[in-house]
Amino acid sequence: MSNNDQEADNLELVFKQKRIIRSNVRQTLKSMDPSLRSQEDDIIQSIVLEAPWFKSSKRLCAYISCSALREVDTSKLLSQILSPAPDGNKLQTAKILYVPRVEDKNSNMRMFNISRIDDLVANSMNILEPASVDADGNAREDVMHANDPVDLFILPGLAFDRSGRRLGRGGGYYDTFLKNYKELAKEKNWRLPLFVALSYSVQIMDEEVIPVTPNDVLVDALVSPTGVIPITSAALGRMKP
């Protein structure tokens, strides 16, 4: 057997293992008590909102949670970021927010700037996304064409472990996007943003249970109902109490 054949067989084994874990985690999430899920949603979002590393982030990317996919809720995070405070100012320091839009079925995703929740519209799968142009017909800023770096990515996923491995839903959208952004940051000599995933307690696996390929991007930290789990040296340095 050639090296190429061996690599192909190894990749197929990894993909098979991922499919099995995805199926198991989906079933676990489906059977999760709705009141417990709601409670964990509130705890996770409160942890993020109160964290110094979140408060100090000026430019961030965050996913729009979909209840049908049983993702950790981000509605309170987005509302706090985008809603003016009573005195007319945004929460903490003013933040610039980018949210994802799936472009096609080939793992291509973009992140566009929005300034209010009403900037989101439901796509064919009833998932909220930003239109590529605003209400006035002006093109929204694409984070890949922005002049300044992002401080923080808030990421979804199906399963995670404490070594930073993340299992997505199989489309490869986030891994492709994060890899491209890391390349852009290197080209621009920018400091990499923190990649922080939000996880229900049932989504955290034992270490090395989640198989990885060279295209998988690891996360810097997890936020679960029990608190923040910093993983990389970047997270340990920037998430100090």
Automatic annotation (TrEMBL):
Annotated ATP binding sites: K18, R19, I20, I21, R22, R166, L167, G168, R169, G170, G171, G172, Y173, Y174
GO biological process, one term: folic acid-containing compound biosynthetic process
Keyword Transmembrane found: no
A GO CC term attached to the entry: mitochondrion
Magnesium recorded as keyword: yes
Residues the entry annotates as binding substrate: I64, E71
First and last residue of the signal peptide: none
One MF annotation (Gene Ontology) recorded for this entry: ATP binding
Cofactor(s) the protein needs: Mg(2+)
NCBIfam families named in the record: MTHFS_bact
Family: Belongs to the 5-formyltetrahydrofolate cyclo-ligase family.
Annotated protein name in UniProt: 5-formyltetrahydrofolate cyclo-ligase
Provenance organism: Gossypium hirsutum (Upland cotton)
Gene expressing this chain: LOC107916295
